[in-house]
Amino acid sequence: MAKNSPDEVKNIKMVEKQAAEASIINLKEYRAKRQFGKTPEPMAETVETPNRMPVFVVQKHDASHFHFDFRLEVDGVLKSWVVPKGPSMNPKDKRLAIEVEDHPLSYAHFEGVIPEGNYGAGTVEIWDSGTYAYVGNNRNISAAIKNGILEFKLHGHKLKGLFVLIHTNMDDQDKDWLLIKKDDVFAATHVYDAKIIPSYDEVFL
């Protein structure tokens, strides 16, 4: 296999450095909302990501308003959306997904109870997790997010196949997206209610 030229190696290192710096900036809001001595949530630490498929996780969050958190690994952090009704495997369903602050990669493994008085107080459980592949037309997933159309293929235990996230209004202040299952071999035709489907751990007990 041909080796990268010195200029290519330099460019790769620069891109990796920029991604690490961006992840630190992106986690400022996460840090600001939490008191880490009073919550079991992971610290907002950046980590090196080896050359592997990026991860996704869906967490049930029984907070003041029950919802699901949908997270995709992008540039060293977890891009995150609150999905009130949960994801659906039925292409007819257009699930509201509200963009929220980025979370550290370690949050992909977090389960537990956030005590009262803390931001997001309530019980967090992993509902589904796995890896995903970006399949959109933009040069990378970060560009796709900026352009408001993000297509990807999930390899989870419950969520499988092609999905799309669509920004409903390209105004920077608007946080509303739609999470939609694409019509493929994994698509469901029945009514799909994520709230009555067991969490990952419950399925394998």
From TrEMBL:
Query: Which InterPro entries does the protein's record reference?
Result: LigD_PE_domain
The record's listing under PANTHER family reads: DNA LIGASE D 3'-PHOSPHOESTERASE DOMAIN-CONTAINING PROTEIN, DNA LIGASE D, 3'-PHOSPHOESTERASE DOMAIN
Write down what this protein is called.
Answer: 3'-phosphoesterase
Native source organism of the sequence? Bacteroides xylanisolvens
Per the UniProt record, the lineage of the source organism begins with: Bacteria, Pseudomonadati, Bacteroidota, Bacteroidia, Bacteroidales
